[in-house]
Amino acid sequence: MKTLLISAAAAASLIPAVAMAQSGSVDDAGATRRIEPYVGVMGGVHNFDSETGKEGIPPVGYKGRMVEGVAGVNYNVAGPLVVGVEGTASKGVSGDIDWEYGVAGRAGVKAGKDSLIFGKVGYKWVNFDALGPDSPDFHGTTYGAGVELSPADMGSSAQSSNIRLRVQADTLGNFRSIRPMAGVVAKF
């Protein structure tokens, strides 16, 4: 886990340099392509099925409330189309979950002035407090979808905003859990 966290921190330190290097490129239609790094804080709950342990998930219906940090980068491909990658790290604040961390690719469509509707696929590791201090991490493929709403699209007088309200739902493995989350992300 330490190697993964160090690698993620090293990759995150390169985001501002990449963003500055790419901010001025222009596509064939004359539109400016942009890389948009972002960070955010979210909160929510993760509920696991109580079925027999499939896809590496323990055979007990664990659940927990958590706080999550998210960092990523979006790339405006063409028109309203956006692709990106993000990393997450979550800490359980109550319940059976100690830590969760993962990485996912995203694809979405811009809506309105600054809002985004997206889907994502990635991989997540989960450590359960309920299994003891030296328990292994359980892991699997994660799928999700969500929306990022800009104040500019919710009636604010601003023409655009770097802040977005984010609401999403994810699942782990073969739909063996549900993980609704909400929070704020800021692009820079």
Morphology: elongated
Task: Output the radius of gyration.
Answer: 18 Å
Mean pLDDT: 81
- Using DSSP, what is the number of strands? 8
Count of helical stretches:
1
Major β-sheet, in short?
A: 8 strands, antiparallel, barrel
- State the helical fraction: 10-25%
Structural class: mainly beta
- Strand fraction equals over 45%
Q: Distance between termini?
A: 28 Å
Strand order, biggest sheet?
1-2-3-4-5-6-7-8
Following the backbone from N to C, one meets helices and strands in this order, namely: HEEEEEEEE
Low-confidence stretches: 1-31
Could you please describe the fold and organization of this structure?
Keywords: Signal. Residues 1-21 form the signal peptide. This is Opacity protein. InterPro entries: OMP/PagP_B-barrel (IPR011250). With 188 residues, the chain is mainly β. The chain is 11% helix and 57% strand. It is built from one helix and eight strands; from the N terminus they run αββββββββ. It has one helix at 2-22, and strands spanning 35-48, 63-78, 81-95, 97-111, 115-128, 138-149, 163-172, 177-187. Strands 1-2-3-4-5-6-7-8 form an eight-stranded antiparallel β-barrel. The protein is elongated.
Quick tags:
188 residues; mainly beta; eight-stranded antiparallel β-barrel; 1 helix; 11% helix; Opacity protein; OMP/PagP_B-barrel
Question: What order do the helices and strands come in, and which of them pair?
Answer:
Layout: H1 2-22, E1 35-48, E2 63-78, E3 81-95, E4 97-111, E5 115-128, E6 138-149, E7 163-172, E8 177-187
Antiparallel strand pairs: 1-2, 1-8, 2-3, 3-4, 4-5, 5-6, 6-7, 7-8
